[in-house]
Design brief:
Layout (H helix, E strand, L loop, with lengths): L5 H29 L10 E5 L2 E5 L2 H18 L3 H22 L4 H7 L6 H16 L6 H16 L1
Antiparallel strand pairs: 1-2
Helix pairs in contact: 1-2, 1-5, 3-5
């Protein structure tokens, strides 16, 4: 018989909690970067007419919108491993450019990664690496697709 362990439900809930927490962090950071577009004293503007949408924004706003989009994908549990890989690559690139612009040597580069000012980025990278390995967990679109495929395979066999 298949007896359920309490650890089985923990293994399904841990990626869900991690995924939703990471999504909340990304959406919050993205909203903070996109919000200045809508303030009247900003030099950035967004206007819509019959010809289309005209957006005058800097890269910070574009990155903030991308953060909101990735956070939304993580909330839904859609393409979880791909989005976590993208966030992991972005964190790695930002850490590399931050230390390379300071002209750090190889040993100093590794030591600067564990500096207290970069601890949130390091935690973000660890969370994304964990999601990359574990997947969406329960209550995600990825999980439902995998479950439907497994059910269809068990019917055939």
């Amino acid at each position: 018989m298949n007896k359920k362990d309490p650890s089985d439900s923990l293994l399904r809930l841990a990626p869900l909690v991690l995924r939703l927490g990471l999504a909340a962090i990304l959406i919050y950071g993205g909203v903070q970067q996109v919000l200045p577009v809508f303030s009247p004293e900003s030099d950035q503007s967004m206007s819509a007419d019959t010809a289309g949408v005209a957006l005058s924004a800097n890269w910070t706003t574009v990155v903030g919108a991308a953060e909101c989009g990735v956070g939304g994908l993580l909330v839904l549990g859609l393409l979880t491993r791909l989005t976590s890989l993208g966030v992991l690559a972005a964190v790695g690139y930002s850490a590399y450019t931050a230390t390379a612009s300071a002209g750090a040597e190889t040993v100093q580069y590794a030591a600067q990664m564990f500096d207290t000012s970069r601890a949130p980025m390091l935690l973000l990278a660890v969370a994304c690496a964990s999601l990359l390995v574990s997947g969406a967990g329960c209550l995600g679109v990825d999980c439902r697709k995998r479950k439907k495929a497994a059910d269809a395979e068990s019917v055939i066999a």
